[in-house]
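Dear all,

This email documents one entry for the complex benchmark we are building for the journal club exercise. For each entry we list the sequence lines for every component of the assembly. Then comes the predicted three-dimensional structure of the complex as a token string, followed by one or two observations. Please use this as the template for your own entries, and keep the labels exactly as they appear.
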Amino acid sequence: MTDAALVHVQKERRSRWMLLTPALVVLFIAASGPLLIVMLYSFLTAGPYGGVEWSFSIDGWFSVLLQRDFFSEELTFADAHLSIFWRSVKLSLLTAVITFLIGFPTAYFIATRPKRQRDIWMLLIIIPFWTNLLIRTFAIMELIRAEGTVNLVLLWLGIIDTPIQMLFTEFAVLFGMAYVYLPLMVLPIYASLERLDFRLVEAGYDLYATRWQVLKRIIFPLAKPGVIAGSILVFVPSLGAYVTPRVLGGGKQLMLGNLIELQFGQGRNWPLGAALSLTLLAIVMIALFVYVRAAGTEENGHG
Amino acid sequence: MARTFDIRRQTGFPAIAMACFILLYLPIILLVAYSFNAGSSVAVWEGFSWRWYASAWENDQVRAATVRSLILALSATVLATACAVPAALAMARPGRFKGQGLIFGLINQPLMVPEIVTAVALLIVFAAVKVATGYTGMGYLILAHSAFCIPFAYMPIKARLAGMDRALEQAGQDLYGTPFRVFLRITLPQLWPGILAGAMLAFVISLDDVVITEFVKSAGQDTLPTYMLGQLRRVVTPEVNAIATVLLGISVVMVVAFFFLSKSRK
């Protein structure tokens, strides 16, 4: 390489990094840097009134799953934590299933509209997606509370004679999460279905397939990448949900996000809170890794 | 005439889709409707009135939170966009470079890491900084919001750059335009819709944030969403509906504008 070319390459590199600097500085101060501190804190000793003492300890990680009996020093599984883990995973999986059952037919319906109509239908899906999560959770709260619309209608119809307690139950949290994350399922499934070649469907019918067989053997396999993407996109934020279980679960139906908050509030065990945060992050990363691999087989490279 | 066999039809799908759209919008419509309720219930309709908007407007806490939310969202939007434009320009240049994957991950970190984890991380760091410096102003919130708004501002700008004709920039350079002049006169005018779209997304995302704000804010720094979250523990009056409706209105206007802005790209 000539000197001039070398100088040019160096100049190129320097200007590239200069352009990146502002974004990287802000992100380092308020995103990645703090995450490294969390890692550090998870290995420290809990202070008596919150905060930490600067001595190494693995008690934080230890308490994620286990607890030491106060008297006998015996080790047992921390049942309270395990049940919250289980509830988080169970509700997140159920949310993915429910949003799929509603979202798939919806995405299919939109994808089979005339081209000009599709954008309008999609806009109707996108608007709720970009509106405030707290407001949408609040809307569900008003709908299902004891004196809310659902109970009023059921009472008026004479189906029930006392209001059903729906708020502050697992059902409420599940319903709320399915409601707020539904657009995340519809968007990627629509993206795969929109590209579906309906000549394949036609070929299926020519070979005497029933509608169900066509759906199961042709449409569904072709939409699979979208379904996987949608499931991950719903599962990941459900697992880390904080606002929805807090508002609709009313402090009884805790999920991981709420358990983490407790360690920084009433529970006051910062190292445990840090370890729980990293555990949540690890599960999310595994899910995202599965997603990237599934998406990678469909199309190469990232956006 | 025999009815044609529609190969696209799947029995029951249109019905489920319609139920889905009703389910998506009914709760929001009810919420908006009851903000106009003359009575103080959010379930029994007693006639139309603007009283809850008036009462929200006269509530000093709501006013302060509104002003704070707007200042915060505007500052974060400006800062995030100012960071995202050069970053997108650097990433969109031809050729791969060392650390590209890492930087891609860093920029998108706020999208991948659960909000509660980032919130806790910021709480730990900013709590220490607050004790050390004694500063408890809005700076922490602005910084935190800017960081998680960067990927939202970045995405539309990057997309716009990818679809742009780079030959024009080269022509500018060939005609002895300085890099800055080429950027100002050729790149920026083409990039403008992407920047605007990115800024609008950043604004909406900042305006709507609850979790990170709740953990980072100092005492007396409620934004509209954290104020709402605090109110939900008490008996809810349609005043909260009125606040929610206003926030909702801003988001919907922004999203629809964003939608048509990105349509005009083609």
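Observations: The radius of gyration of chain B is 23 Å. Residues 200 and 254 of chain B are 6 Å apart (CA to CA).
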